[in-house]
Each structure stands twice: as C-alpha cells, then as structure tokens.
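Appendix B, record 7
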Amino acid sequence: MQCQQPGHECAGCMEKPMAPISEIVRTVHLEHDQMLILEDLRTGRVRVLHGGVWLTEPGETRDHFLQPGDALPVRSAGALVQAQGPTQVELTRLGRRPRAAWWPRLRALAARWHLGPVPDTCA
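Structure tokens (predicted):
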C-alpha cells in the first residue's frame, strides 16, 4: 500500500522492502593493555577473534570481559576496549537500519503511554 500524501511515510510505506543493512568490518590487533576508544562506532559490534578484552561504554554501569568468539553490540560512541594480552578484535559498524524495525516499538510505546492508537496506514 502506498501513502497518498506526498513526502509522508506511514506504516504501509515503511513496510516496503528496503536495502539490507550495510556492514563495515575492520580487524584490529592490540598488544597487552593497549586501549582503543571507539569514537565512530555508535551502532556496531565488537567480536574477539584472539585473546581477550575488557569493554566499557559511557553511561553503562556494567563492564564486559570478552573472550575468543564472544561478541557484544556497541550502542554509544566512546566505548573503551582494553586488551588483556595480545588480542585481535573485529569491529563491525552497521549502516542504516530499516525504518520498519522501529515502527512496532513506537506503536508499543504509544500504547504504553496511553497516547491513543497509532494507525497502521495513512488515510
């Protein structure tokens, strides 16, 4: 179903097939105690290929210790990674997310806050 209002997007429009999420992957080698600040990795993932890391994110109360094979999503810029020995990590930065992915969450929030029904499509 297409929205009849120019420049307006409704749930019907947002359910159209969209381009897949693009991924940019980079492998980084770290020496023991070497630190890496992930300034440009707002939405991505850190995966340990070899060694181990301590990872902390601004505003988070929990720190994470990752071993080979472990992966953790990164949700904010400025996350800090410190190698716990010679380490190799894979950094994945995700491209844009399909808008349809956030629409159900928006509808659920509107219902929880008693804002009234959110239409499935435009009139």
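Remarks on this record: Residues 103-112 form the longest helix (10 residues). The CA atoms of residues 21 and 95 lie 5 Å apart.
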